[in-house]
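Sorry to interrupt, but I need a hand with the structure work. It will help me judge whether the discrete encoding reads sensibly. Write everything out right here, beneath this request:
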Amino acid sequence: MRRTVQLFVTCIIDTLYPETGEAVVHVLQRAGVEVSFPPGQTCCGQPAFNAGLRKQARKMAIQTMRAFEPYPGPVVVPSGSCAAMIRHSYAELFADDPKWLPSALALAGRTYEFSEFLVDVLGVTDLNARFEGRLTYHSSCHLLRGLGVDSQPRALLAAVRKADFVELPDSGDCCGFGGVFSLEHPEISTAMLERKIANLETSGASVVVSCDAGCITNINGGLHRKHKPQRAVHLADILDHI
């Protein structure tokens, strides 16, 4: 019997990148698991949490916990920032709430970021993916620093056939998005993004891969405004090429 995972697709992928959500499902199925999509899921609450709106963040977190509570098994999230929110920040949000803290800890304990689940849980790195061209990788902040996930997406990319993988200079530096950070500090955000784009050009890669749709949106926006030919894509989009 195939293992079943629960997909938390995230609001930004659901809204802006539905094809990436489909790619996540395809890749997980090729890795040997069934994928379920619990209804009722919306936003994890991270934007409100980062903005200091704890009351609103709690409401969204409770909705997320209610949506997934009836569905057992691992919860897979194609976003380092959303996975980090559930894994770490839910416990903080409900630290003084004996009613919801057990649910927050239970959900956190079975939540995995997409690449982390493939490599660390399933033991899969080679998905028979193919991509002709030069790739590089941007380490998103929450994935790298919040979850400590870095080798896993790199291992998956290293197994992509025909791909020419090169390192991105300062790959762990923030792209400048940071959710509400880019709105509250636009000048700093823009400077960080310009440095990221300059490093992408230095790498010689035509595609930069990330595991966070927020970073992808920000980098692609900067590339578009500068009329650059490179593009940013999600890891799942590359792994879905067979």
Remarks:
- The first strand starts at residue 3 and ends at 7.
- The two ends are 25 Å apart (CA to CA).
- The mean pLDDT is 95.
- The CA atoms of residues 91 and 104 lie 6 Å apart.
